[in-house]
Design a protein that fits this description.
With 310 residues, the chain is of the alpha/beta class. It is 35% helix and 22% strand. Helix 1 packs across helix 7 and helix 8 packs across helix 9. It is globular and about 50 Å long. Bound molecules: alpha-D-ribofuranose (RIB).
């Protein structure tokens, strides 16, 4: 069984489905609000567990009644939550999400406990995972020093690390020496490119492929850009690129969590010893399956469903 440590945020998601997303200052009305498990870290942990990995999750919850339900959902998925800190006097993270009739979303997050996750907690979790984990997956809805602890300790223990820069933090550039695999979407790639741009000749209006090449070769790390319906673009450190197409999609209901599904399944496959291209194929297939239901985790596929789709 592949073994993965996931470090990142856990949220409670409140989701309203509407015909279209609101503009600034605008009110849109949908028929209901539904509550789902969320947070890029916890979502990816669930994706990896459903894909057949043994998963430990490291993050933080608050001291409110949402903490227990957030943790119960993870336990129910078989995710080990021994590395989760329960913090006093802070709320569990919450995301307010609007999903339109095309499955596109708009998300605002109240970080709560995620925003004060202690780097020492993360360092302990990675140390405990040494000799156990085949991959550490980190996303960035947590403090910069907690992200750094995860990436640098993974490198210190020789554990392959996947860094999902969602959102991009300026401090990430300093972590490239630890050689994580980067998994931005196109807007995060643009932010990474802009951070690195000063010292290069790449034009600001560069295409996604040019930006991915530039980030991979400058930072000397593999870059996997998630492209939604167009799959994933992989740029290696030599500047070579290939595209892994998306899987078949029958209905787009809610794209929330598709990136987290990709990351969780990709990390599980890396931990299993797959090549980067094979792992990307599995991740992108799982992400294509995940968008057929409302809620970040609802549509995440099992290992069997991924195999069938492949
Ligand atoms: O990637 C989707 C996730 O982003 C949601 O579950 C929400 O909680 C935010 O963290």
């Amino acid at each position: 069984m592949p073994k993965v440590l996931v470090v990142g945020a856990v949220n409670v998601d409140l989701v309203v489905e509407t015909d279209r997303l609101p503009g600034p200052g605008e009110t849109v009305v949908g028929p209901t609000v539904t509550r789902h498990g969320g947070g890029k870290g916890a979502n990816a942990a669930v994706a990896a567990a459903r894909a057949g990995a043994e998963v430990r999750y490291c993050g933080a919850v608050g001291s409110d009644d949402m903490a227990e339900s957030a943790l119960a959902e993870l336990r129910h998925e078989g995710v080990d939550i021994a590395d989760v800190a329960a913090l006093d006097e802070v709320a569990t993270g919450m995301a307010l999400i609007v999903v339109d009739s095309r499955g596109e979303n708009q998300i605002a997050v109240g970080a709560g406990a995620n925003g004060v996750l202690d780097a020492a907690v993360v360092q302990r979790a990675v140390d405990r995972a040494a000799g156990w984990a085949g991959c550490v997956l980190v996303s960035t809805e947590i403090p910069a020093d907690a992200v750094a602890a995860a990436v640098e300790q993974a490198a210190a223990h020789g554990i392959p690390c996947v860094l999902n820069p969602a959102p991009v933090l300026p401090s990430l550039i300093g972590l490239m020496a630890s050689a994580p695999m980067l998994t931005p979407n196109t807007s995060e790639l643009r932010d990474l490119h802009a951070l690195l741009l000063e010292s290069t000749d790449t034009p600001a209006e560069a295409s996604v492929t040019e930006q991915a090449r530039m980030v991979a070769s400058r930072a000397v790390v593999p870059v996997l850009v998630t492209l939604g319906a167009d799959g994933v673009l992989l740029a290696d450190t030599a500047g070579d690129t290939i595209t892994v197409p998306a899987g078949r999609v029958d209905a787009v209901v809610d794209t929330t969590g598709a990136g987290d599904t990709f990351n969780g399944v990709f990390a599980a496959s890396v931990a299993d010893g797959s090549t980067v291209v094979e792992a990307a194929k599995r991740g992108v297939t799982a992400a294509s399956l995940s968008i057929a239901a409302v809620g970040a985790r609802t549509g995440m596929p099992t290992d069997e469903a991924i195999r069938r789709a492949l």
